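Could you help me review a protein record that somebody else here produced? This is what I was given.
***
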Amino acid sequence: MIITTPLKYDAALRDETIELGKKYNIEFVERYKQSVKQLKYRSNDILVIGKEKVQYISKEGTFTYHPNFAQVRLRRILKGEDDPFLEATNLRKNDKILDCTMGLASDSLIAAHVTDSVTSLESVRSIYLTVSIGLMKYRYTLQQLEKASKRLTTYNVDAYSYLKEQPENSYDVVYFDPMYDEAVQSEGIDSLKQHANYANLTEEVFEEAKRVAAKRVVLKAHYNSPLFKQFGFMQCIRKNTVSHYGVLLTS
């Protein structure tokens, strides 16, 4: 992987990109008006750092960070409307939540609006880098969402490895939103799917999650996913929606 700037950049953006390369151990390549096609002679994996946009380019396609539906959802929440994720997680101000499947971090952002302690895990390095850096650089239309983005702690690690290292009851809520193949109408998710990890969740993962979660484990999955029954989740039926939430109480 290499890291570079857009075609148009200034000295400040160049310096920032160099520092990000050092931080994440990625080779910085001077843009010098080179096209993406030319840059691919150096590497098939290119991370482009713009002033307000972070883009990952690979053989699979292009993935640009965007908070997806988080802004729309937060506007509704601020109006007093219900949010299914917050209902399922039952988050409170002082709760600690572990998001084991960060993806675009939309749910993590909503969680961070409610509580100050949100940890998000992403096993795919390209997604982790694009989203973690994108969270810092994106120009949010809601001040509350910008504040929430600064409360996230992100790690490039798979859920099982991280959970095994955590003490018992060290988080109040452990959350999973695995990628699935069924069609979901979202441009942001469609671009993410090209790079996502489709590894199945296992009994070992959920056993660790139950050990670490002081209050509950929450699963978001396709409404006909076998995971709900397989691991004993109480499925929250939502009419006319593709995704349902499952809740497994641990206390």
